[in-house]
Structure formats: structure tokens, C-alpha cells
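Following up on my earlier thread - several people asked me to post the actual chain instead of describing it. Fair enough. Here it is, all 102 residues.
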Amino acid sequence: MSIYSLTKRNTEGTLLHPVNTMYSEEYAESMCRLYLTDEIVEDERGKRIRNYRLHAKTPHNIEMALAYDINCPCCGGRLKQVGRSRDSHTLGLYTCKACNRH
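Reply from S.P.:
Thanks for posting it. Predicted structure:
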């Protein structure tokens, strides 16, 4: 599993850029305000798709979680949210359309 810390790219703090780390998830959870973990799944054709889960140190409501625009860790394009938050710290699931083209 890869862990990406997120840095702010605008004054509002809503545009986020991922930085690959060697952090464990426990360390990222305690030290990073926001971070991504990757989740690899297989689609119906057997192709592996890399998705990213957003995690927050402080609790987020739905509006707060939806406010972020996140760049793709691989290509730098914009991630699209494809799954909802699991709880107030484990937020949306994102994918990159450019990286996951069939």
C-alpha cells in the first residue's frame, strides 16, 4: 500500500497535491492532516484499477469532504470521486480517468 501526504496548492486549502511517502498508515494517521492510500481493485474485465482513499486527521462532514480537488499521484491530472465517505475520518474514494483508461 502506498501512502501520499497531501499539500495545499491554493490559499483556501481545497486544491491538494499528493507527495509519495515511506510512511506507515499509523504514522500518516497521526502526522498528516490529510493523506491518500491506494486501493487496487479488478473491474469486470479483470483489469486492475488503482483508486485512492482520502483520510483526514480531524473529523469531516460531507460538505467538508466534498470540498477538495485532488491531483493524481501518478499523472498529476485531477482525481474524480467515485465512492462515498465511510466515516468522518475515512473519506471518499477517488479514481483517475486518465490512468485507468481501458
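The chain has a mean pLDDT of 93. That should answer part of your original question.
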